[in-house]
Amino acid sequence: MASEASTALHVICFGNELHGDDGFGPAVHARLAAAALPAGVRLMRADVAGLAAIACFEGCAQAIVVDAVQGFGPPGSLHDLDASSIAADAAGNEARAGFHGAGVGSLLQLLPAALERVPAIRLVGVEAGHIQAFAPGLSVAVAAAVEMAAAHIIARWAPP
Length: 160
Hints:
alpha/beta
């Protein structure tokens, strides 16, 4: 069982599809759910980056977090970020770390205290253009990035 955990990859999609571009994670989840997942890859959806989401990081050697970000480029731009530096940045200022509200950056900061073994984590994020409560639907730029993000993630789990 330990060898399986050491090769496992969790893809964890965060966001709320009722809040505009915050629905990026759920949209990528839906796209990836239609793909054939290889052995050792687990696709998960965690709408809220609360304490319950810590369980998504258990039992894997690697995790890819998918979420909307802010402050990294023009709306719709795709980013592959080192999650450890973002979690460290969250200690000072969540907004400066590029995440909307207190969320994934703060959650990542808690992982070392909550888990016996923290997986290697990357964040695949899209620059959000419009996040607004109870305004469902992605902006055109963010919707266009969903397929690019899915292809990027699939390439990471494909054999070299």
